[in-house]
C-alpha cells in the first residue's frame, strides 16, 4: 500500500505541471489581458468585470491620468493604447510581469507555486491566499449542507427504489429523477428566482447573500433561521443534479448486491427481508457510496457552486473565480486553479484508499497505476 500511495503522490507533480502548462498556453491566446483592462479603464471603455471591483486598477488610474498625453500617439500592440505615453505602457507591462518572455513567466510561476507563493491579485492589492481565506466560508457552507442534504435524501430513496424495483413507485420516482438530472442547475436556479424570489410570482426568499443586514445583532435563534432562509434556494439549485446521481448510484449498488448468492442463502436460512437488507446487503452496497463521499463533497465545494454563487451573488470561491476570469486577474485564476487541482488529486487518492479501508479485500498493490 505504501508503494501505491508513493506512486500516486509522485504522479501528482507532472499532473499539476500539465494542468498549469495547458492553462498558461490557453491564456496566451485568449484576447484581452490585465494591461488591456487598465487601458480600457483609462479610456472609459471598460464595461467588463473590472467595473464591479471598487478601486479596480489600484493606483493605475492616478498614474494613467498623469501619463495620458494626447499628442503622443503610440504604435502599440494593445488596443486602445493610442494617445498613451509609451513609458506608461512599459510600466504596466513591468507591473504585471509581461516584460518577460512567456517561457520565463511560466518557469517563474511554477517556481513560486512550488513554494505556495501565489502572489497578489492584480486589481485588489490582496494576496491570493488571503482572498481564498475570505471567500472560503461561503463555499464551504454551501458544500457541507449540499452534501449532507444529498446523502440524507438520496440514500433512503435509492434503497427504497432498489427494494421496490419495477414498481409504480420506482417508475415515477425514476422519471422525476431523470428530469431533475437533465435540468442544468443554473437554469433551475433562475426558475427558483422567478417563482420564489420576487421574479414574477412569489417573494418568499431573499435573492442575495447568506445573511440579512444587521445579522450580527440578531438573537442566536434568529441568526439560524435567517441563515437557512437565505441558503434554501441556492442549496436546492445545487443539489438537483447531485441528488439524481446519488439516488441512482445507491439503487444500482443495492440491486447488484440483492442478486448475489449470499442474499439468497440468507433468505433460505429464514432471515426476514429487513435483516437481509440491513444486516447483509447494506454494508456491501454502501461501499461505493461511502467511499465516494470525499469526491462528492469536493465537487460541491469547488466546482458545483460557481454558477450558483454568481446567480445568487454569494461571495464565495465560485464568484471569485468567475470575476477573476472576467478581469484577467491571472494570479487569482492560476492560484485557485492550482489549489483546486491539488485538493482534487489528494481527495481522489483519499477516495481510492477509502475503498480499501471499508473493504479490506481490495488490494491496490496488485494493480498498476
Describe this structure in words.
The chain is mostly helical. It folds into 2 domains: 13-126, no CATH class; 129-326, MetI-like fold (Orthogonal Bundle). Helix content is 69%, strand content 0%. It contains 16 helices and no strands. The model is unreliable at 49-75 (pLDDT under 50).
What is the gist of this entry?
With 369 residues, the chain is an all-alpha fold. It contains 16 helices and no strands. The protein is 69% helix and 0% strand.
At the fourth level of CATH, the homologous superfamily of the largest domain is MetI-like
- CATH fold group of the largest domain: MetI-like fold
How many individual helices? 16
Distance between the termini: 12 Å
Task: Give me the Rg, rounded.
Answer: 26 Å
On the 0 to 100 scale, the average pLDDT is: 78
Strand content: under 5%
The largest β sheet comes out as:
none
Using the alpha-carbon principal axes, give the shape.
globular
- Under the CATH scheme, the architecture of the largest domain is Orthogonal Bundle
Number of spatially distinct domains: 2
Topology:
Layout: H1 2-29, H2 34-43, H3 60-67, H4 86-96, H5 102-114, H6 128-163, H7 168-182, H8 185-196, H9 220-258, H10 261-268, H11 273-285, H12 287-291, H13 293-303, H14 306-311, H15 317-326, H16 330-358
Helix pairs in contact: 1-16, 2-3, 6-9, 6-13, 6-16, 7-9, 8-9, 9-11, 10-11, 13-16, 15-16
Main attributes of the structure:
mainly alpha, MetI-like fold, 0% strand
